[in-house]
Amino acid sequence: MTTIAQKLQDSLQQILSNDPWYGPATYDIIENITFEAAYEVPPGSVHSIAGILLHMLGWTQEITDRMQGQTAGEPAGGDWPDPGHPDAGKWKQLIADFKLANVTLEGVIQKFPDSSWDGPINDHRDPELGGKGVSYEALIEGLIQHHVYHSGQIALLNRIVS
Fold this sequence. Notes:
mainly alpha
């Protein structure tokens, strides 16, 4: 029998590094992007690829914190932190940090009690802001959807700037 943790971990791995049915995995997308392309903001765009990946990293870390009982809020570095100036080393580190954040989250998912997946996360925000009453299972499913959405944006931006 597949547990909720196993199902969620499999779904996360599928989109990050396996073979999702809709296209390339997130890690395949980002590993093929040059640092020059990563920091370019094309005309009409709001964010660079590096900015989007930094946003994804922040939310992965925030979700990991929520899974460990911390009160829901914005990521520690903000929702859309400034990626700064183009730098090859910084781009490689951002990719490594994103991968590590997801490995850390997978570890938290594995250890999460089976009986707690349908419980609400620790969220004291105004219910009108949304997200209040979200279960831990829905939280992880939401992050997976978030990764898919932004991975598509990154792939499209890379086609524009490369």
